[in-house]
From TrEMBL:
Positions of transmembrane segments: 170-187
Name under which the protein is recorded: Small ribosomal subunit protein uS15m
GO biological process: mitochondrial translation
Species of the source: Trichinella patagoniensis
Swiss-Prot/TrEMBL keywords: Membrane, Mitochondrion, Ribonucleoprotein, Ribosomal protein, Transit peptide, Transmembrane, Transmembrane helix
Length: 192
């Protein structure tokens, strides 16, 4: 019996020591200020800390604040579909007309007709796939490596998810079924 009391008291004193040594942070703290959503805000804040006594403690406080707010920021960012896909200039020409020499000297009104803006949705999807695949492509001929295939299917899944979030109707259910079908075909390609 005295031995268990000693272990409990040692644990209690260790817990008290840990409580005084490290600050507690709230992991579910809401991000009220919009500047917390900026990815470089905390980096700039840490770089602006002067090199005086308490420098390390101040950096720790900044890290705790960043960590406790990041959960809420990520949840808010997850609902915003602009972060899902790379930025594509919709004023550029469609992929099949990029190499046409006559369009280089054509007036802007003609170029606009052959742009992604006046094209179908598949033209925009193709550019998203191309942008994601170019990030991981090892050379120009790399079209079938695992990284490129994952990037291609990621672009397709994110495109369908964005389309579902844009549509607020009954046909969204059918698009969800198509999305599941796409995911299952993606999984089947890796099991072959």
């Amino acid at each position: 019996m005295p031995r268990s009391w000693f272990v409990q008291s040692r644990f209690l004193s260790f817990s008290c020591f840990m409580l005084n040594r490290f600050k507690w942070y709230n992991i579910r703290r809401p991000a009220i200020d919009p500047k917390h959503a900026d990815p470089t805000y905390y980096e700039n804040l840490a770089l602006s800390v002067p090199l005086v006594q308490g420098y390390i403690d101040r950096l720790g406080e900044i890290w705790f604040e960043m960590f406790s707010v990041s959960r809420d920021v990520n949840f808010k960012r997850a609902r915003d579909s602009t972060h899902w896909l790379p930025h594509v200039d919709i004023k550029q020409l469609k992929a099949e007309y990029e190499s046409v020499k006559a369009l280089e000297t054509a007036p802007d009104s003609v170029k606009k007709l052959f742009s992604i803006e006046f094209g179908r949705r598949k033209d925009l999807t193709f550019q998203w796939k191309r942008a994601l695949m170019n990030k991981v492509r090892q050379n120009e001929l790399d079209t079938s490596s695992l990284e490129v295939r994952i990037a291609k299917h990621t672009a397709l899944i994110r495109h369908w998810s964005k389309l579902l979030s844009e549509m607020k109707s009954v046909c969204a259910f059918y698009l969800f079924i198509l999305l599941l079908r796409l995911i299952f075909t993606f999984v089947e390609t890796f099991h072959k």
